[in-house]
Amino acid sequence: MKAKFSNAWIALGLALAPHALAQAPTPAQRELREIYKELVEINTSDSVGSCTEAAQALAARLKAAGLPAQDVQVIVPPDAPKKGNLVARYRGTGAKKPLMLLGHLDVVEAKREDWQRDPFKLVEEDGYLYARGAADDKAMVAVFAANLIRYRRESYKPERDLIQVATCDEEIVPSRFSGIVYLLKNHRALIDAEFALNEGGAGLLDADGKYLRMSVQAGEKVFQTYQLEVTNPGGHSSLPVKDNAITHLAGGLARLGAYDFPFKLSATTRAYFERMSGIETGQTAADMKAILREPPDSEAIARLSAANPLNNSMFRTTCVATMLDAGHATNALPQRARATVNCRILPGESVAEVQRTLARVMADDKIRITPTHEPALSPPPPLTPEIIGPIERVSAQMWPGVAVVPTQLAGATDGRFTINAGIPTYGVSGMFRDPDGGGVHGLNERIRVRTLYEGHEFLYRLVKLYGGGR
Ligand SMILES: [Zn+2]
Predict the structure, then answer these.
(1) Global pTM value
(2) Pairing of the two strands 318-326 and 336-345
(3) How far is the CA of 171 from the centre of ligand 1 (A)?
(4) Ligand 1 center to residue 136 CA distance, Å?
(5) d(CA 199, ligand 1 centre) in Å
(6) What residues have CB less than 8 Å from 68, skipping those under 6 apart?
(7) Which residue has the higher pLDDT, 220 or 264?
(8) Residue 402 Cα to ligand 1 middle (Å)
(9) Ligand 1 centroid vs 365 CA: distance in angstroms?
(10) Opening angle at CA 457, ends 87 and 160, nearest 5
C-alpha cells in the first residue's frame, strides 16, 4: 500500500539507531540470508511457480536443524500439486495455547523483461536486496523459519508451541486453493493458536532512510465487489428514448462518486489518529484531534479526507467504480450496461447494509446490484496490553523514540480468514518500508539489507516475549 505523507514526517525523522550501521553479518544473519535466498529464488507465482517446492525447501531446513519430522509438514491440497503449504510446530511446554507465525509463500507475477534484474534471483545492490517477494512476503517467512532454527540451537523452551504456517495463494482473490482457507477447514487442530503474527504491519522510513514510525496492523477492511447491471430492450440509435441503459447506469455511478459513507472510528483507528496527532503538526494535528471529539468535527473530517486517501480509508467504508462495459454496436441503443464497484467495508459494519446504501445512493430501480462473492467478514482483533506491550517494548529497545502506531489495513491478507476462525491476527514485522512502498506488487521489489536483519532481530525478541519460558 502506498500513501502520501506530509513534511511533518520528514521533520520528525530520527537519527539512525546505532545497530543499523553496516557490520559484518553474524552467523545467524548469514543463515537467514541462505534461507531467504533459496526461498526468493524458487518461483512461487501462480503461472509457472510452485509453492510446494518452496514449502519443501523450508521443511528441509527446519528438519536439518533438528525439528522432528512429524512436526514439519508440507500440506498439499489433493487437486493442486503446486499449491503446497508449510506447517511446522516448534514445541513448548504446552502451558499456554500456541502462537501462529503466519506468512505466505506465493508471490505476485513478475516478468523478466519488465524488471531491471531477474526477479527470481536475489541481487544485492547499494544496501538493497532486489527480487519478487523480497519483501512481500518471503522476508517474513524466511525470518520466522530462521528464528525457529535459532531457538532450536539455543534449546529455547517456550511456554507455548510456535507454529509456522506458510501458505499458498494469498495473493489470489478469490482462490480455490487459498492455503489458509484449506488449512483452517481441513487441518484446524494442526494450526490452532491463541493468536497469530502476520504481514500487514510495516514501519515507515523517509527517503533518507530515517525511521518515522512502526505500525501494528489490527484489523482489515472487508473486500466486497458488486456488479451493477441495467438491461433494456434497446432499439435503433436513430430513434432514441430517454430510458437508456447507459444513462441510467452513468447517473447512478455519478451519484455514488459524490457520496461519502459515514465517518466511524474503531478502537484501532481511534488509536491510530491519537498517536498520529502527536506526530503530525499544524492543521493536520489539530484536525486529527478534532475528529476524536464527540461529536467529531465535520470540517476536519473533510480536510483530512481530501489531504490523504489513507485517512479517508481509515475512517469510512469506500465504494468505487472500477470497471465499465456497455452496449453492443455503435448504431444500437444499449441492451445492457454493467459496472463493477469495489467496496472496502469497515470491519464490523454490515455488508447487507452497504448494499442497501448503494441502492439508496444510486437511487435508480433499474440498476440491479449483485455481490460477486461471499464476503469474508473480520472484526478488528483487540489490541490488548498483552499484545501491544511486547511490541512497544522491543520497538523501544531497537528504535528508541519511534512511535508504535496501530493501523487498519485497506487491503487484505490471510489475516481476515484466521480472524474469522477465532484467531486474532496482528500485522507486525519490525521491517520498515521506503516511502514509495518498495515496489511491492510492482516492479523491482526491494528491501533494505538492514531492514531484513532488523525484522529478524525484532521478531526473534518479540516471539520470545510472547512465547515466555526460557
Ligand atoms: Zn503479502
Answers:
(1) 0.85
(2) antiparallel
(3) 7
(4) 5
(5) 6
(6) none
(7) 264
(8) 24
(9) 39
(10) 45
Distance 439 CA to ligand 1 centre (A): 12
Write out the DSSP string of 57-91: HHHHHHHHTT--GGGEEEE--TT-TT--EEEEEE-
- C-alpha of residue 198 to centroid of ligand 1, in Å: 9
Distance (angstroms) between ligand 1 centre and the Cα of 415 equals 10
DSSP characters over 408-437: EESS--THHHHHHTT--EEE--S-EEPTTG
Half-sphere exposure of 296 (CA within 13 A, CB side): 19
Ligand 1 mean position to 132 CA, how many Å?
11
Give me the mean pLDDT over the 261-276 stretch: 95
* Residues 6+ positions from 23 with CB-CB distance below 8 Å: none
Q: With a cut of 90, say whether residue 117 has pLDDT above it.
A: yes
Own/partner pairs for 62-70, CB < 8 Å, 24+ apart?
62/88, 62/145, 62/148, 62/149, 62/164, 65/148, 65/149, 65/152, 65/153, 66/152, 67/148, 67/152
Q: What is the pLDDT of residues 375-410, one digit of tens each?
A: 777 778 999 999 999 999 999 999 999 999 999 988
C-alpha cell at 154: 539455543
**pLDDT value at position 22?**
58
The gap from C-alpha 389 to its chain's centroid, in whole angstroms, comes to 22
